[in-house]
Here is the input.
Amino acid sequence: MKLTRNLDKITDKSSYVSLISEDNEIRIYYLTDDIVRIRANFNDDFKEKSYSLVSTFYEDELDEFFGNERNRFVPLKYDFYKTNDRYVISGGNLKIEIIESPMTIGVYDSYGDKIYKSINDVGFYEDSNGRIINKFEIKDNDNFYGFGEKSGDINKIMTRMINNPMDSMGYDPKHTDSLYKHIPFYIKLDSDSKKASGFFYHNSFISEFNMGKEKSNYWHRYGSFKADGGDIDLFIINGPMINDVIERYTFLTGRSALLPKKSLGYLASSMYYSELDKDCDKAIEKFVDIAKKEDFPIDGFQLSSGYTNYNTSQGPRRCVLTWDKRRFPAPDNFFKSMDEKGIVVSPNVKPGILTLHPDYKKFKDNNMFLYDPYKKEEYIGNWWGGYGAFIDFTNEKTRDKWKSMLKANLIEMGTASVWNDNCEYDSVFDDDVMCDYEGEEVPITRNRVVMSNIMCKITNDAIKEVYQNTRPFVVCRSGHAGIQRYAQTWAGDNFTSWDSLKYNVATILSMGLSGVSNQGCDIGGFSGSAPSEELFVRWVQNGIFQPRFSIHSASNDNTVTEPWMFDEIKDIVRDAMNLRYALSPYLYSLMYRASECGLPIMQATFSLYQEDPNTYNNGMDFFVGDSLFVSNILEEGQNKHRVYFPGEDEEYYDFYTKEVYRGGQSYDFDVNLESIPIFVKKGSILPISKTKLRNLGNDEVKDLYILIANGKNNEFIMYEDDGKTYNYRNGDYLKTLISLDAGKKTYINFKKEGKYKSSIENIDLEIINKEKSPYFVNIDGKEIEHYLNKRLFDKANEGWYYNNSSRSVLIKYANLDKDYEVLISFEEFDLVGM
Here is the structure.
């Protein structure tokens, strides 16, 4: 074992502080005011070669590979000194204290509150099996969130979790571990201080988190991180707010991609359509036509891998980057036809190549596979339909060849979207298999989990090379830290059950807390039998708020999950999907926000109300953005639904009736199958389309409705661009800063930036104001007409009306192509004494 029990030597190296303990070295770096890096070296000699990080303060061996994705910053200066019993490193908002014997490292914020402290004797060590371990102090009432894609309750205190991506089809949503992602990052919320901090272990080996499940009486209560190799390379991130932590973590690993607007639409899918004997293309086109005839919005079709069926010597098998010409006689015509219908097609691509593949020799001759060092040839393992070999994406020449094949066999046929699937590499179970690792040649254990990230980067690059001004739309099932830079993700092949509906919410929220804002779960369930009518309705009603909205299935009872599958409830399903499309101006603005600062689209309630302990274990309710509070019905047979409203000083308004509810309290609601309990909190600014949208890629918002809950100052950036190209990078965007200045004179200011020409022609404002009706309303300095009759107001092009039922002000006017102000006077007016 390699231990670090006592501090033998400490040296300030000017750019870092070096700690020597029993021949092992730990280096401490100050990155920014709120990020420090503690790296204990056991295996890597402090080599900098990362597929995960995009922000670095040093040269990295992969800088050329990432190009302008990498951001180089200047690290923070620090002070280093010794007190009577400890060494101190201080800089920015963090202070590090090091005790010599037994050696411990503590990290504190500027108020002296402890963020992190290693456990004496066993804080940093490598065991006799070559596994590296970091143990750190925790408290019984700490709360732990994130960890990437995980099942079960959202708070992971007293749990042990494995980071080892698996093809987990039909997984138990409460207990299965691991799922498909490997993101060794978590957020701690201290119940005493109410402060949050983040911890990113920059390590791509299979690893394990123990968050207090293990206990030894010889040491302080502890949690631990254990990995099969590499170094303990820990980035500690100060808050104190959860969203501060997420912003700083995504500064390190990258922000979510600004995907095409269509990625927020309904993405249809089913294995059924690509498994028909012939003419699958016509069947899919017919499906889209049915959706339009049934008046359902739709934007995409995720094409399952059945299109790659190839008649081999052992019968039909899935052969990647080929086309079954009985099913798809003319792929280019199919893509063209779907594009004319407004549908983006995302063909499924897998990184395993069957030995029966017609081009297997071509792959092999180009040395594209992982390597078996004992047989001195490509590694052969289990794969779909038999045995196969696996693409080594850590090899530069392989990447170039794969990119060329991907372009020729898919992208150049007419699609700018690809669905990367089955890229967990869990079937490569032999840890001695070798990968190139940019010429270094190392065992697959180091890079198994990064293969999906590299695969998605290559896919993005290939699409950009073919369609230079088109934003790629890549979907991926697996992923390591940083996958958000390249792809929309989903939680794999879930099982059709009420538990999946319920616990998948926490899975999505955990991904958002781990920097992956654009995540979803298959609506209706992928495996198992068809959902019941009630389960399907509730799943859609919940799914419309997920960043990724896809109904997908491979049911084992010969059914196909589609929006109209139950004729009796299809109107309810359509209404829910219409609500999602109406919310698209808000959702697209949140996707833009995620691309700028990394914040989730779906947010856990404790992310916004970490002062409220009643939210700490809530993985069912959530916010969309900061304004829309959703408390969906996730249990079977409910006619009563209890909602806890977070934040003691908060006020919420029913989205539909505008009835008010107080924060810090629970209320019981009567519900039926049509109920979607959603609320806006005081100060909310919520842009919604009044134009009926059927396709986000082609339809434009002409009439915009903005719901504003008066009573608290706030602001929101509504983002617009063409939703397709990179023109926004040249200023062809429109950011409208909508600010609310609440008071007896309430001001709503619209300040615009960018040269994009908005499609919005008319604006309707609804300002909830329970106390009284306005005295007057001005728009851009001009007083507009007051209507006391709703029928006359509805017929007018401009004016205002006070709705006494909802106690809200309705204002309508033509959109102004400039900065302007809306003034609503709630001043005292004595009608009798005038």
Summary: The two ends are 89 Å apart (CA to CA). The chain has a mean pLDDT of 97. DSSP finds 13 helices and 59 strands in the chain.
